[in-house]
């Protein structure tokens, strides 16, 4: 009996130790790799991790490497083999370097045990291993779209790189991903090199329970940061101090970073949508949009609040805010599996018309078209999906921003944004806990 108890205890301790090196259990990553293998039965996928930063900054890993392997080691490479149904992890790092970067020494010493990946080889063996593995018919898959660090979104990153670098007549460089594609094609002319980004986006579209738990942590931390900023807002406060406070609360609460640059808009800056200059001192009549989110374990959250600097809503502010809250309540009442955003938008249109509003006005277009939806949320705050149609039925595990935006005039806009997940029987606001009604906001800010 004692022996049985001791063995059970040791097994539990072993599981805890292994999980401590990774964000999720090993089977979570193995399941993702197996699904990827199902999509590439004719070849292999090569996923490259991030290199060390060139400046004096801490190392952070690319999202795709974290998604499929969970390892935060510089210059790691993962081969997922759809033909042989095995994976191989490559990296080289000495223990002193690893310890200095707070990388688990257990992971460095025994990567197969810690990760559950079938094979490990030093980074220096990658080229020869790849050469020996390929047959004439093997297809090489690799992501063509840019890899994401925390706070980045793949296609937005691609568009900016293309505009400022690739299409620049004085530059012309390819993205690192497309440069890798070029080199692969040159070295292995007998093998097709194809894009696996669509497969990855499809896998990342629906989140697992474990992923949702982490996003919930990020969203709840964001809520605390929003509340701290609301509590410290009053006329005469500098926006930059509020931005610093938001980041402090997130980082002190265990965030890995910010999901995106904190947006603070007031006065004329409402017009710019994503204003991050923090260059104003708040005035009595200012109406503030705070759009900010924490990133926890490489998962983002997205939350927006709108509130008056004075703590009291003016009539104009009250009118547009109550209308936004009305639309939010309609949308969230209807979120459930099986319904589409198009259907929700049609219901919003009906309810607005009941209020006597002209729904052909452009101000209501987003509410009607999208049913409160703005974008998917996951490892990136604008998480990419292979395909998404607003007419498709919502599915459990779909995490997105319910983002109610509106504008009364050039200095009075609103964003009431929640991180939301569709559940088996409805939905959950992962970012619950904020004062949302006018009465709640005014009571919360009363003694600022």
Q: Can you offer a commentary on this structure?
A:
With 448 residues, this protein is α+β, with helices and mostly antiparallel strands. It has two domains: 21-205, 3-Layer(aba) Sandwich (Creatine Amidinohydrolase, Chain A, domain 1); 209-444, Alpha-Beta Complex (Creatine Amidinohydrolase). Helix content is 41%, strand content 17%. It has 16 helices and 15 strands. The chain has helices spanning 2-21, 26-39, 63-68, 95-100, 105-109, 111-115, 126-133, 154-166, 176-187, 197-205, 209-231, 239-252, 315-334, 341-354, 365-370, 438-444; strands at residues 43-48, 77-81, 86-90, 119-121, 139-142, 193-195, 257-258, 263-265, 287-292, 294-295, 303-308, 373-376, 399-409, 412-422, 427-429. The strands form four sheets. The chain has a six-stranded mixed β-sheet, sandwiched between helices. It has a four-stranded antiparallel β-sheet with strand order 12-13-14-15. Helix 11 packs antiparallel against helix 12 (239-252). It is globular and about 70 Å long. The model is unreliable at 1-19 (pLDDT under 50).
């Amino acid at each position: 009996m004692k022996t049985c108890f001791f063995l059970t205890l040791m097994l539990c301790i072993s599981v805890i130790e292994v999980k401590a090196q990774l964000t999720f259990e090993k089977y979570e990553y193995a399941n993702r790799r197996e699904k990827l293998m199902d999509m590439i039965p004719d070849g292999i996928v090569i996923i490259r991790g991030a290199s060390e930063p060139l400046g004096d900054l801490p190392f952070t890993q690319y999202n795709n490497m974290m998604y499929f392997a969970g390892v935060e080691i510089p210059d790691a490479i993962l081969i997922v083999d759809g033909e042989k149904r095995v994976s191989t992890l490559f990296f080289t790092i000495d223990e002193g370097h690893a310890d200095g970067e707070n990388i688990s020494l257990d992971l460095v010493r025994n990567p197969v045990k810690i990760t559950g990946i079938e094979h490990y080889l030093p980074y220096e063996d990658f080229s020869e291993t790849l050469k020996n593995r390929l047959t004439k018919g093997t297809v090489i898959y690799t992501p063509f779209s840019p890899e994401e660090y925390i706070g980045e979104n793949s296609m937005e990153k691609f568009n900016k790189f293309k505009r400022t670098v690739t299409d620049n007549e004085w530059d012309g460089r390819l993205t690192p991903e497309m440069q890798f594609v070029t080199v692969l094609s040159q070295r292995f002319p007998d093998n097709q090199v194809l894009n696996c980004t669509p497969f990855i986006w499809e896998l990342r579209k629906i989140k697992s329970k474990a992923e949702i738990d982490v996003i919930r942590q990020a969203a709840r931390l964001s809520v605390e940061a929003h509340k701290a900023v609301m509590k410290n807002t009053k006329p005469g406060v500098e926006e930059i101090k509020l931005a610093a406070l938001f980041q402090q609360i997130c980082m002190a609460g265990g965030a890995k970073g910010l999901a995106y640059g904190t947006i603070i808009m007031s006065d004329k800056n409402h017009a710019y949508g994503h204003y991050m200059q923090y260059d104003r001192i708040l005035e009595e009549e200012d109406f503030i949009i705070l759009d900010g989110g924490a990133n926890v374990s490489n998962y983002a959250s997205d939350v927006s609040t709108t509130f008056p600097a004075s703590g009291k809503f003016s009539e104009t502010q009250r009118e547009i805010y109550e209308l936004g809250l009305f639309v939010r309540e309609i949308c969230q009442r209807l979120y459930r599996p099986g319904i589409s955003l198009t259907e929700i938008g049609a219901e919003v249109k009906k309810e607005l018309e009941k209020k006597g509003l002209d729904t052909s006005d452009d101000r209501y277009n987003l509410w009607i078209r999208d049913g409160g939806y703005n974008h998917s949320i996951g490892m990136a705050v604008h998480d990419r999906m292979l395909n998404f149609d607003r007419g498709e039925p919502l599915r459990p595990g779909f995490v997105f921003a319910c983002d109610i935006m509106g504008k009364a005039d050039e200095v009075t806009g609103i964003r009431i944004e929640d991180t939301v997940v569709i559940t088996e029987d409805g939905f959950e606001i992962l970012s619950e806990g904020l004062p949302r009604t006018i009465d709640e906001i005014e009571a919360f800010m009363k003694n600022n």
